[in-house]
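Q: Protein A?
A:
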Amino acid sequence: MNREITVSYSRELIKFAVWKFWTRNIGLRNFVIFALVCVAFILVFLSGDCSWFLGFLGAAIVFSFGLGCVSYFISLRSSMKKFNRMETPTAKFRFTDERIGIESNIGWTELSWKMIEKIWEYPSVWLIFIAKQGYVTLPTANHDDELKQFIVRKVRS
């Protein structure tokens, strides 16, 4: 296969991609643990216990919440910085049997399919993870089922 598509980016799409990356990266388990620690804090506080344990739970909540916020906003700022550097918010993706190429007005790259570790698929965007490099946001509006199947097949092979 030898296909080229042009995709468009928007602030909303970038924010959506960052949100999906952040929430999936943290995982449901960590959100549940955070909620349980918050409930434990409230129960210990309401029981009238003002021991070191209450302080520990409070510190854990503040630290976890702060770390989560900081990690989200660092990812968002980094992605928005790249978006803002684009004169026109479009990119060309080239898909061949050997490589994937990405070109925009801020640069270009070609990668062997072996460099792609995984794909997180969402209806409006795919996150294509490059080995030890982060991810590339691929809007899905401009590609058909044949191209989607080709990309998935190349990443899994």
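Q: Protein B?
A:
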Amino acid sequence: MAEKGQILDLTPLGMIFTVVKSKRDTGGKSLDLEWELLPQCNMVDPLFHTHPEAIETYHILEGEMEFYVKDKWIKAKKGDKLTVEKGVTHTFRNPTNSLVKVYNTHESALNMEDYFEDVSKVLDRATQNRTKALSMKSIKTMLLLGRLMSNYRREIIAVKPPDFLIRTMGKVARIIGIDYNH
């Protein structure tokens, strides 16, 4: 369970999240994070996804970035706010050479903070404790991602890569004993 002020280091994906308000702080109503998106974050193989039971909001605090919502890319700059309703396909990227800061919420919190903590574990496993570059196309990464995503079906569903592929990889990972928790 995340704590206020905790840093979720997702740098192999080009992101660093700081917990502003945890699930416990808000009584489960939201998870509030401040993101730092590194230059060129998510420019290759971003995870297009939905949140079936949560609304996600973004407030750009610094810099410029792009969001894919439903079926198109939208540019956003400092001061802009965006809300993504439940079940809407989305992703984001930082196409600039500058750091972007974003205030992000998931309402309700569900288990998103656990998901992000587990993403960090997947990154550790997929990059041999951050000593190797991350490849989203490697079988090991896909198996770990499949295992992760199968544990958080209420929180997040992949759209691209397709959910059926992610679920299949999760089942294969479970059968052959691949897990991100060891």
